[in-house]
Amino acid sequence: MGYYLIYFAILIIVPLWAQLRVKGAYNKYSKVASSSYLTGQEVARRILDDNGLYDVQVQETRGHLTDHYDPRSKTVRLSSANFHGRSVAAAAIAAHEVGHAIQDQQEYAFLRFRHALVPVASLGSNFSWILILAGMLMGAANLLLLGIIFMAAAVVFQVVTLPVEFNASNRAMNQVVQLGIIRNDEERETKKVLNAAALTYVAAAAVAVLELLRFVLMFIGMNNDD
């Protein structure tokens, strides 16, 4: 009983802690104006142009922290607060998303691998739980194993996301420093925003791996009982 309490506590606390870190860092540094006083849109455009990515668009999108890069339409989409914001946080997030556009331009291997995994991971996320629950309820080890295989595809996607996100953040830091978008004394604050955002991906991957391991152990136990 104690094991399960610890297990479920980890599943709840780790993602919650990561989300609180992101919100805390973002809320703090979204109130600190960057020395360049550029909006997130201007930061993104400057980095894109400096890297010859004139065909990549920068658009405003709805929502809070919904910033992302769409490789299909070659578009960096920034949430309204970051699109118009002139803060250290807005600059960091805009630069991070442009980091993905640069990865796309340079055909970064992990990004390509992640894109290739999207349909498989989507299938795994949608069907793994159905198969796992069916296997558990029916005591069918084969169904449980099939569910584990589907889940494993989704977990691989989560794990591959880590180097993609960390690499985009490293590119972002290099760009904002080289182009003078932030001063030396702002590097620490910028890194805090980027590192906090990265924690959400680390937490998601850790929880996914833990869940997968639990079902693998369940499958082994089911076979041993037979």
UniProtKB/TrEMBL annotation:
**Chain ranges passing through the membrane:** 6-22, 116-137, 143-164, 193-220
InterPro entries named among the record's database cross-references:
Zn_peptidase_2 (IPR007395)
User: Which superkingdom is the protein from?
Assistant: Bacteria
Which terms are listed as keywords in the entry? Membrane, Transmembrane, Transmembrane helix
The record, for PANTHER family, names: MEMBRANE PROTEASE YUGP-RELATED
- What protein does this entry describe? Zinc metallopeptidase
Q: What is the lineage of its organism?
A: Bacteria, Bacillati, Bacillota, Bacilli, Bacillales
